[in-house]
Amino acid sequence: MKAAILAGGKGMRLARSPDDRPKALADVGGKPLLWHVIEGFARFGLDDVTVALGHRGDEIGAWFDDAGAARPKFLETGAETQTGGRVKRLAEHFMGERFLLSWCDGISDIDLAAMIAFHRAHGKVATLAAVRPPPRYGHLTLDGDRVGEFREKPPREEGWINGGFFVLEPAIADWIDGDDASFEEGALADLAAAGQLMAFRHEGFWTSVDTPRDLSNLQRLWESGEWPLAKVHGTRCGA
């Protein structure tokens, strides 16, 4: 199965990182986020990967050239194209094939083979990975102005959110108007309303990098030897 990664956004919340790299090239353990996502795919035999480029895409391609890293394919999708537009262009580029999609900033030990099998079994247009977000803030119980209890908020209190991993049928292109369309607010909302969007629940590790703090947390995991993808031994994904 082909896989695709969206790496064309502007990543404004990481724009003030010290090295001023595009978000996809934000460094964890000496390698960019995008490289780690591609490595996660490879553990399931997903080695035909296309990266949808946009904002500062030339820098992303240059990193792979300079590093001599396993090179994905690149598809230029326009600097101002929205997420829906990029997905539509990818679907058309794959010419009628089902494909796996992710963002460039999501790190997870999700079982991609199981997710693809789940998708094939239900026959709908799209599957998304439903995940539990990591707690970001301590939970306070207040007694007037006094803090009666402080504890880290457990992830289950957050409910389920979109984890940014998808399996999509070629028909996804028909649900997206064009370059200005949002994938999340447009196609996903419409698919859900039509009963064509299914959720694959993932209870394991998941995080996305939206802020410098998120990046620092991932770096600490790498340095501690607890890197989640190191523990993934996936079975090869079917078509």
Main attributes of the structure:
single chain, 239 residues, alpha/beta, Spore Coat Polysaccharide Biosynthesis Protein SpsA, Chain A, 7-stranded mixed β-sheet, two-stranded antiparallel ribbon, 28% helix, globular
Structure description:
It is a single chain. This protein has one domain (2-132, 160-231): Spore Coat Polysaccharide Biosynthesis Protein SpsA, Chain A. The longest helix has 13 residues, at 212-224. The protein is 28% helix and 26% strand. Helix 3 (83-93) crosses helix 5. Strands 5-4-1-6-11-8-12 form a seven-stranded mixed β-sheet, sandwiched between helices. A two-stranded antiparallel sheet has the order 2-3. By secondary structure, it is α/β, with parallel strands linked by helices.
Question: What name is given to the CATH topology?
Answer: Spore Coat Polysaccharide Biosynthesis Protein SpsA, Chain A
> Widest sheet: strand order?
5-4-1-6-11-8-12
The CATH architecture comes to: Alpha-Beta Complex
Query: What's the CATH superfamily, by name?
Result: Spore Coat Polysaccharide Biosynthesis Protein SpsA, Chain A
Secondary structure tally, helices: 6
Distance between the termini: 5 Å
Quick structural overview:
The chain has one domain: Spore Coat Polysaccharide Biosynthesis Protein SpsA, Chain A (Alpha-Beta Complex), CATH 3.90.550. It is 28% helix and 26% strand.
List the helices and strands and how they pair.
Blueprint: E1 2-7, E2 27-28, E3 31-32, H1 33-42, E4 49-53, H2 57-67, E5 73-76, H3 83-93, E6 99-103, E7 106-108, H4 112-122, E8 126-131, E9 138-143, E10 146-152, E11 161-168, H5 183-193, E12 197-202, E13 206-208, H6 212-224
Parallel strand pairs: 1-4, 1-6, 4-5, 8-12
Antiparallel strand pairs: 2-3, 6-11, 7-13, 8-11, 9-10
Helix pairs in contact: 3-5
